[in-house]
């Protein structure tokens, strides 16, 4: 049996000045969104069989209502299969809780590693 690790993290891009309570809301929101993306990320079996690993960075545009508007690869993983999976994750999620500071852009690094 092959053990695999699929790891996702989320980074808020841009500079935003937040009060302490707004920062706490943003931190909670980021954690919630991170969990939503992580729950939808899979490790394609074809990539596993080929021994493909890597990290793709996806820029995700999120509207004020939390709808995922668009996603694009910022930095590829080196695997077309993993890049395709990375782009599919935001679509699978579709909508997240509304961002506390309005529309935002997130850069989401998604990592696949064979254990």
Give a verbal description of the structure.
With 115 residues, the protein is of the alpha+beta class. The protein has one domain: TolA/TonB C-terminal domain (2-Layer Sandwich), CATH 3.30.2420. Helix content is 35%, strand content 30%. A hairpin with a 5-residue loop joins strand 3 and strand 4. The termini are close together.
- In total, the number of domains comes to 1
What fraction of the residues are assigned to beta strands by DSSP? 25-35%
The biggest beta sheet reads:
5 strands, antiparallel
Give the SSE order as H and E letters: EEHHEEHE
Poorly predicted regions are 9-20
Q: What is the CATH class?
A: Alpha Beta
The CATH superfamily is TonB
Q: How many DSSP E strands?
A: 5
Helicity level = 25-40%
Structural class: alpha+beta
CATH architecture: 2-Layer Sandwich
Query: What count of helical segments does DSSP give?
Result: 3
CATH topology: TolA/TonB C-terminal domain
What is the molecular shape?
Answer: elongated
User: What is the CA-CA span between the terminal residues?
Assistant: 11 Å
What is the CA-based Rg, rounded? 15 Å
